[in-house]
Amino acid sequence: MIRINSRIFRTDSVTRLLSILVVVAISGFVTSGFGAEPDTIRIANSYADGGNYNWAGSGTPHEILFNGERILAKGTNGTYCSGFTFAVVMRAAEQSKLLQEKTAAQIRRFQKEWYGAAGDTEKQAGPAMENLGVGKSVPFDQAQTGDFVQFWRGKSGHSAVFLKWMQEGGKKIGFQYRSTQKSTGGIGDKIEYFNDVVGRKGEVIRERTYFAQLNLK
């Protein structure tokens, strides 16, 4: 028995009450989004680091199927950026049931736009999502962990999953991302800096860095 404010409670009742309060508190914590890992990050991290970088074939870490039809064969002896991010976006979109009413023809078109072989060849991911009706372009300053990023270094472009900003003196000087590239021997995390940052030897063009976000549930 426990006495609280002159009232007596059975210890088992107190235990049940505390259990309920803990469950409610945890539920509120989870639904508020604190500590929640975006699906795109969870999926991107499910692919092991390495595996070789190879600019050939589809660049995907595995075969991409949709409604029983092959969209892309597995990459040849490794992966490259567009193939990796396409595998991530397809898994995330399917798990969130964003592709339920889509056709294989639409997915094939989506893939071409994602790779920059059709549509907006500069921004790629955002317009591709918008055309398929599964996501949207996101302003530079509103990018969030788990968004997709298409960025350019001169004529060289790169597709990645955005992880976080690198900041100095309150200014965004670069960012960390997960993709596949020669410098990491395939899939891996990397930090790059903008070319307007003094002392960082960055190559990324700030004005040509574009973010995109899936309509995840």
List descriptors.
217 residues; alpha+beta; 2 domains; two-stranded antiparallel sheet
What does it look like?
The protein has two domains: 33 residues, no CATH class; 178 residues. The protein is globular and about 50 Å long. The strands form three sheets. It has a seven-stranded antiparallel β-sheet. A two-stranded antiparallel sheet has the order 1-2. It has 217 residues and is an alpha+beta fold. It is 29% helix and 29% strand.
Helicity range of the residues? 25-40%
Oligomeric organization of the protein chains = single chain
Task: Please outline the major beta sheet.
Answer: 7 strands, antiparallel
- How far from one another are the termini? 46 Å
Can you write the helix and strand succession as a string?
EEHHEEEHHHEEEEEE
- Count of runs of 4 or more consecutive helical residues: 5
Domain tally? 2
Question: What Rg, in angstroms, do the CA atoms define?
Answer: 22 Å
Could you tell me the mean pLDDT? 86
Q: Give the neighbour order of strands across the main sheet.
A: 3-10-9-8-7-11-6
Number of extended strands: 11
Shape: globular
Catalogue the unreliable spans: 1-35
Label the structural class: alpha+beta
Residues in β-strands, percent: 25-35%
Chart the SSEs and their pairings.
Blueprint: E1 2-4, E2 7-9, H1 11-31, H2 39-46, E3 50-51, E4 64-66, E5 69-72, H3 81-95, H4 104-114, H5 125-132, E6 135-138, E7 148-153, E8 156-168, E9 171-181, E10 186-193, E11 209-214
Antiparallel strand pairs: 1-2, 3-10, 4-5, 6-11, 7-8, 7-11, 8-9, 9-10
Helix pairs in contact: 2-3, 4-5
Brief write-up:
29% of the residues lie in helices and 29% in strands. It is of the alpha+beta class and 217 residues long. Helix 2 (39-46) packs across helix 3 (81-95) and helix 4 (104-114) runs antiparallel to helix 5.
